[in-house]
């Protein structure tokens, strides 16, 4: 395996100025532009033509074969009989994703990657609700595609550009020398691939779209430390917007796909591909919105009626249950976020730590769990037992 040239961006990111950071953002945009402007005519993964994959078609010395998307292999799914592609239409790709989730739910039971804590009085994952959400989605999925068909094209995209995966020249940190962690990169529709790089994530309010932020009106009255924090937030927000504007200028299709991530159809299509893991109350909520906006989605005739009748419906009782379930689910997600922050780990952490850190992290886990149980149940032993069962990180 070739050694990555340069140093991880994480080693110098906090020490370089905003102009240097801006140049790095611009270089990432140019790189992603090259990916977006070189689409493929099918979806799957890229193989050398003399490799094991023989399906697909030759593409400049490569062939497109079955996907290596982790969702088709992780958490026991490697053993399942699934359609792993390649796929030659957007409809087949979307259907395969949702069908994969359905097969995972019926064959494997619960996922080990829940997003929330499912304690007493909170949402309890339901196989029935998961399957209902997927079946309803599958019945209308062909209508739930972005209207801009350019964003349907299959592209490669790096899904995890955080500062440890970006290597730069230590003499000129604006020069990107290498991007690592490509092992699960696959060809998928642009509207599902385009996303802001993780290294641009920050804590604070998201700025208005395409509008550069400014300092607070009361900046002059702030204390020195408050001024530093305000400038830091302003710079982080500016980089966030710089990426958005840069991508739109360099590649309108990719910019459109990025903006479209906030639309109902893209949110629903993306989340329907993760129901095995979690989120069925949200999917059902999106489906209710689809029903309510059906005419807007499929178009209306001269009388104002949808050109195609909506195939799915929800009763008032089902709508009420969905709202309650989502509120409970969101509370569980908030609790998980609090626990993750208390542990100083990332969302989705699977418990892995280095050998050197094992004992310290184990003691931290125990202390965090005990504080959590005290907060949620106090001295009520019955409730403590229920919350202990819901604790997401077992400690031996």
TrEMBL record:
Belongs to the AIM9 family. InterPro entries: Aminoglycoside_PTrfase, Kinase-like_dom_sf, Mito_inheritance_9. This is Altered inheritance of mitochondria protein 9, mitochondrial. It is found in: Mitochondrion. One of its GO terms (cellular component) is mitochondrion. Pfam families: APH. The keyword Transit peptide applies. Residues 144-190 form the Aminoglycoside phosphotransferase domain. Keywords: Mitochondrion, Transit peptide. PANTHER family: ALTERED INHERITANCE OF MITOCHONDRIA PROTEIN 9, MITOCHONDRIAL (PTHR36091:SF1). SUPFAM superfamilies: Protein kinase-like (PK-like).
């Amino acid at each position: 395996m070739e050694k990555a040239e340069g140093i991880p961006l994480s080693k110098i990111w906090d020490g370089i100025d905003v102009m240097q950071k801006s140049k790095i953002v611009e270089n990432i945009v140019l790189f992603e532009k090259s990916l977006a402007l070189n689409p493929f005519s099918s979806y799957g993964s890229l193989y050398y033509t003399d490799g094991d994959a023989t399906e697909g078609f030759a593409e400049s010395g490569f062939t497109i074969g079955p996907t290596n998307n982790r969702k088709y292999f992780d958490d026991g799914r490697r053993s399942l009989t699934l359609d792993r592609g390649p796929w030659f239409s957007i409809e087949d790709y979307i259907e395969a994703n949702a069908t994969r989730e359905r097969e995972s739910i019926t064959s494997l039971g619960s996922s080990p990657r829940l997003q929330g804590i499912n304690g007493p009085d909170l949402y309890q994952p339901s196989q029935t609700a998961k399957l209902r959400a997927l079946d309803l989605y599958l019945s209308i999925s062909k209508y739930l595609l972005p209207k801009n068909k350019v964003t349907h094209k299959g592209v490669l995209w790096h899904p995890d550009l955080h500062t440890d995966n970006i290597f730069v020249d230590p003499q000129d940190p604006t020069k990107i020398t290498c991007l690592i962690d490509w092992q699960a990169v696959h060809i998928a529709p642009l509207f599902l691939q385009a996303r802001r790089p993780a290294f641009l994530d920050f804590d604070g309010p998201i700025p208005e779209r395409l509008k550069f932020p400014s300092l607070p009106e009361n900046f002059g009255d702030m204390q020195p430390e408050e001024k530093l924090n305000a400038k830091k937030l302003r710079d982080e927000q500016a980089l966030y917007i710089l990426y958005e504007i840069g991508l739109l200028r360099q590649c309108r299709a990719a910019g459109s796909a990025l903006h479209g991530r906030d639309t109902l159809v893209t949110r629903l299509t993306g989340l329907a591909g993760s129901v095995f893991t979690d989120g069925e109350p949200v999917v059902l909520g999106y489906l209710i919105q689809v029903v309510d906006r059906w005419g807007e989605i499929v178009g209306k005739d001269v009388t104002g009626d949808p050109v195609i009748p909506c195939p799915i419906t929800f009763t008032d009782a089902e709508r009420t249950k969905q709202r309650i379930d989502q509120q409970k689910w969101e509370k569980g997600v908030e609790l998980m976020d609090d626990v993750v922050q208390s542990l100083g780990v990332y969302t989705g952490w699977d418990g892995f730590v280095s050998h050197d850190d094992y004992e310290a992290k184990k003691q931290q886990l125990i202390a965090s769990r005990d504080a959590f149980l005290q907060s949620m149940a106090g001295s009520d032993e019955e409730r403590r037992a229920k919350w202990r069962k819901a604790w997401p990180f077992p400690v031996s």
